[in-house]
Design brief:
- It contains 15 helices and 14 strands.
- It has 352 residues and is of the alpha/beta class.
- Strands 11-10-9-12-13-14 form a 6-stranded parallel beta sheet, with helices on both faces. Strands 5-6-7-8 form a 4-stranded parallel beta sheet.
Length: 352
């Protein structure tokens, strides 16, 4: 987002925690002022509260764009936004529902700051149609919400440095791909169950799961062994950049089995790679079914298995859908398009 806005001539500052800040990321954000706070406790994204740093960042901005919802940084920034009478926009990106762990803590957060932070914003962004109604629980009418999806920037693949088949020693075997955190909300457990259902119909296919472990890998490995598919299930950890693009190109099929997600960026990444996609109806992109650009299924192992079987059995239809998805992304989801929408929204906020 900041790269696309900088390309349009805007000065951007990014206030964040030091989690995952690599030299490559610093290089990628060289167009913006990167303000990094040390993280005391990654479980709750608790920063060392450098009050003067956050205060200065808020004072220097014309518009503050708050991403996510359950963060201390947002709460502290909100205090200074009110103090200095600054304009601000909220983009929870699917974080508004109280879901998963720490429900009591989230209710306390909303009681003291979260609900007011959302309600008092000068503009409200939903990244998918399904997210618009989530604002109502915070006292925001759907008519006040602007639909501005997340964007994507094409990254050139690099087959010279990454070939998953060579890495896993699976020769020319086709594979189904999952990219995401190994977390229940992302549904990798459902995908393993679904793969076990279709394994005999597609005996040459493997299942590759790429993404950081968030405590689920051990149980996923045990379940794969119990289902007798451990030799065909591979965990490759985090893959990013050109290697990720190459992985998507090599995949026979991309599956996103999420239990809840505002908008799945990896669907867009798969689309740019021209790879067929099966996703659940909780990924914020159900319209893809209507334009025949992907297969959308219910959140269950059996429904995901049905989607996999349909896509792999009718390759011609799956590739046509992939072509439709790629064209749809080019028209609606590239960052240069999204940046213009944001620029218009921020300008309207500043003009009241």
């Amino acid at each position: 987002m900041s790269r696309a806005l900088a390309a349009r001539g805007h000065l951007c500052s990014v206030l964040t925690l030091d989690l995952g800040i690599t030299e490559q990321l610093r290089k990628d954000l060289s167009h913006s002022r990167l303000i990094v706070l040390p993280c005391l406790w990654s479980r709750f994204y608790l920063p060392i509260p450098k009050i003067n740093v956050i205060s200065e960042a808020v004072q220097n901005a014309d518009v503050i764009h708050l991403m996510g919802h359950w963060t201390i940084i947002n709460a502290v920034a909100y205090f200074f936004i009110r103090r200095f009478h600054k304009k601000y926009v909220v983009c929870p990106a699917g974080a508004l529902p109280i879901f998963g762990r720490s429900r009591i803590i989230k209710k306390i957060y909303n009681f003291f700051v979260g609900t007011r932070l959302v309600r008092n914003a000068n503009a409200h962004i939903a990244i998918a149609i399904s997210e618009i109604s989530q604002y109502e629980g915070y006292g925001v009418s759907p008519s006040q919400v602007s639909l501005v999806p997340n964007g994507i920037t094409p990254i050139e693949p690099n087959p010279a440095v990454f070939n998953i088949r060579t890495q896993l020693n699976i020769s020319n075997s086709p594979f189904i791909l999952f990219i995401g955190r190994l977390n229940l909300i992302k549904g990798p457990d459902l995908l393993i169950e679904a793969f076990s259902i279709v394994k005999d119909k597609f005996p040459n296919h493997h299942l590759v799961l790429a993404g950081p472990d968030e405590g689920l890998k051990a149980s996923l490995s045990l379940r794969s062994r119990a289902l007798g598919i451990q030799s065909r299930v591979h965990f490759v950890g985090y893959v990013g950049g050109a290697s990720k693009s190459e992985l998507l190109i090599q995949a026979d099929l991309m599956v996103i089995p999420s239990r809840q997600e505002a908008m799945s960026i990896v669907v867009l990444e798969a689309g740019l790679a021209n790879t067929p996609v099966v996703l659940t109806d909780q990924c914020g992109l159900n319209e893809l079914q209507e334009i025949r650009a992907a297969t959308v299924v219910k959140v269950s192992a059996q429904d995901i298995a049905n989607g996999i079987q349909s896509s792999l059995s009718n390759r011609k239809a799956a590739l046509m859908a992939a072509n439709n998805l790629k064209a749809h992304i080019a028209d609606n989801y590239l960052w240069k398009t999204i940046a213009l929408k944001l620029e218009i929204l921020f300008t309207s906020v500043l003009e009241g």
